[in-house]
Amino acid sequence: MKLTSSEANKLLKTYNEELNRLKNLERLSATFRASTGENIDDVRPDYDLQFFSDSKINIVNNIITLKHYINKFNNETVLPCGLTIDQALVVLPLLNDELSILSRLKDRLPKTRCGTFGSNGVVEYEYANYDINKALEIYSKTANTIADIQNHLDIANNTFTFEIEDPVKVDTTSETTNQQVDTK
Length: 184
Known about the structure:
- This protein is mostly helical and about 180 residues long.
- It is about 60% helix and about 10% strand.
- The chain has 6 helices and 4 strands.
- The strands form 2 sheets. It has a two-stranded antiparallel sheet with strand order 1-4.
- α1 runs antiparallel to α3 and α4 packs antiparallel against α5.
- The radius of gyration is 28 Å and the shape is flat.
- The two termini are about 45 Å apart.
């Protein structure tokens, strides 16, 4: 099966949602309460331990396999900027942190009045200890670098494909998973 990284991540999300759905259904149907005098068989929800166990194991194995292929793709695919996808995913948050700092630095005034100091009315100032224009220049370069990397990532994630083995077909529909569970 051929997938783009974007398609693989959507499939991964689907697997995780289905796994969570099964876990929730199992939580709701694995145990139940009955009042004294109530016929237990009338209130017992359908529950098949083997079905839930097998279904969850199959989904987890699909998740493991798919994540392996995604990680392999991210480790081996080199973007036009010279970074692999996994390197880009590490670099982007670091560059965004730096951009946040540079944003504050570029927007400062060279000299800012802080207020008066003491009872004698001496005015206190705060001075930028750097060239604000240089901060603006570095900010622009960093923002452009982030945009370039992000564009390369977007193109790779939506156009480059990789081959994965067909996932295990998991039928998670049964009487147990389709029933309405009364949680009162």
